[in-house]
């Protein structure tokens, strides 16, 4: 049995550090104290891989629980995703009436304040509605509306809003994008009928990225580039769902060539980690079947993807392991400005995963705690 499984704070293997691969030993408590070994690739030995823990900025649920339930639901969700290598996440809301969103935020706030044993660190909230276009809801319930800064500030008082998805073409929303950006929030473009020009304008006003790229936005056409065209031409960051259902592998490869810091999210629902059947997604009833989650009309409604499978899918698309690791960890940390997560170096949090040579998860450490 390896040191990792015993729970030692000294683990040996192929360690992906900020300076590249090191074959050696990493020591840590809550934070990493040292990495010792020889630099070089892991190709010439058969030791385990030690990677930064996964960071998921778009999580709706898991283990039969939905973020919008409020209460203790987020603790179940954070524990389910931790078992798949996610060491930190953003709890993601749905478009809903104000009272539903406020209930969800109160539950999230308690989890932000205190991480439970065996749970991923809840960093805050990804507000994926209601400030989106009612004509591009995707699987969002029909409660979309426009917003002013005061509306967002009222929600921010309940829980830390780290990401906010906005449709920039709605009246007043370009100014909202600017105000939110100046207030230090990350603004993403999503659930939008906006044009290429709307996307470019939003980026100029301070928008930072795009929510589940390709999904719930105007597509690319050579005479009408749409919001997808704006992202591919101008974005530095965007999230994509690599479950191979939401986005064709060819489209993922296109985004990888165009968007330097493309990162992966699960957009996972309460059906994650559960058998086929009916589950809740906000106020929607959804069905898990045939490897996906859908509304009654067949619309994809989030996913059951986990981040360890996202990593394997990326490697299956041809990415080398270091690049794939960045897409499920480091890039998301950089996007939120988290220099103490998403990387293995002295002084950073000991958030790490241990995988065998087939990329199966063997151990997960969150802030030094072995799950």
UniProtKB/TrEMBL annotation:
PANTHER family recorded: N-ACETYLGLUCOSAMINE-6-PHOSPHATE DEACETYLASE
Binding-site residues, substrate: 139, 215-216, 223, 246, 300-302
Protein name per its UniProtKB record: N-acetylglucosamine-6-phosphate deacetylase
Family according to the record: Belongs to the metallo-dependent hydrolases superfamily. NagA family.
Keywords tagged on the record: Carbohydrate metabolism, Hydrolase, Metal-binding
Lineage, opening ranks: Bacteria, Pseudomonadati, Pseudomonadota, Betaproteobacteria, Burkholderiales
GO MF term list: metal ion binding; N-acetylglucosamine-6-phosphate deacetylase activity
Gene Ontology biological process terms in this record: N-acetylglucosamine catabolic process
Annotated Gene3D superfamilies: Metal-dependent hydrolases, Urease, subunit C, domain 1
Keyword Transmembrane: no
Native species: Duganella fentianensis
Pfam families, A to Z: Amidohydro_1 (PF01979)
Cofactor binding, per record: Binds 1 divalent metal cation per subunit.
Active site: 267 (proton donor/acceptor)
Enzyme class label: hydrolase
Enzyme Commission numbers on file: 3.5.1.25
Cofactor dependence: a divalent metal cation
Domain Amidohydrolase-related: start-end pairs: 49-370
InterPro entries recorded: Amidohydro-rel (IPR006680), GlcNAc_6-P_deAcase (IPR003764), Metal-dep_hydrolase_composite (IPR011059), Metal_Hydrolase (IPR032466)
């Amino acid at each position: 049995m390896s040191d990792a499984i015993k729970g030692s704070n000294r683990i040996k293997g192929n360690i992906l550090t900020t300076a590249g691969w090191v074959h050696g030993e990493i020591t840590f408590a809550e934070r990493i104290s040292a990495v010792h070994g020889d630099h070089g690739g892991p190709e010439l030995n058969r030791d385990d891989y030690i990677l930064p823990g996964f960071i998921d900025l778009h999580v709706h649920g898991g283990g039969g629980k939905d973020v919008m339930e409020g209460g203790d639901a987020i603790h179940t969700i954070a524990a389910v995703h931790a078992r798949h290598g996610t060491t930190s996440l953003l709890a993601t809301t749905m478009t809903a009436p104000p009272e539903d969103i406020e209930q969800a935020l109160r539950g999230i706030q308690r989890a932000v304040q205190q991480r439970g044993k065996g749970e991923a660190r809840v960093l805050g909230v990804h507000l994926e509605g209601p400030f989106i276009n009612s004509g591009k809801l995707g699987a969002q319930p029909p409660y979309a509306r426009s917003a002013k800064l005061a509306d967002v500030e009222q929600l921010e008082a309940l829980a830390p809003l780290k990401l906010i998805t906005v449709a920039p073409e709605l009246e007043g929303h370009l100014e909202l994008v600017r105000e939110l950006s100046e207030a230090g929030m990350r603004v993403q473009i999503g659930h939008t009928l906006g044009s290429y020009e709307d996307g470019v304008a939003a980026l100029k006003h301070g928008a930072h990225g795009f929510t589940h790229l390709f999904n719930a936005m105007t597509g690319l056409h050579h005479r009408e580039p749409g919001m997808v065209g704006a992202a591919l031409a101008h974005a530095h960051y965007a999230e994509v769902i690599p479950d191979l259902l939401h986005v064709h592998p060819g489209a993922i490869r296109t985004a990888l060539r165009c968007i330097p810091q493309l990162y992966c999210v699960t957009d996972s629902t309460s059906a994650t980690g559960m058998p086929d059947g009916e589950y809740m997604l906000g106020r929607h009833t959804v069905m898990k079947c045939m490897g996906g989650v859908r509304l009654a009309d067949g619309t994809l409604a989030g996913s059951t993807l986990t981040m360890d499978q996202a990593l394997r899918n990326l490697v299956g698309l041809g990415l080398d392991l270091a690049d794939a690791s960045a897409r499920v960890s480091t890039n998301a940390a950089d996007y939120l400005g988290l220099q103490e997560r998403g990387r293995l170096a002295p002084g950073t949090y000991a958030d790490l995963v241990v995988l065998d040579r087939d990329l199966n998860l063997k151990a997960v450490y969150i802030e030094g705690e072995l799950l």
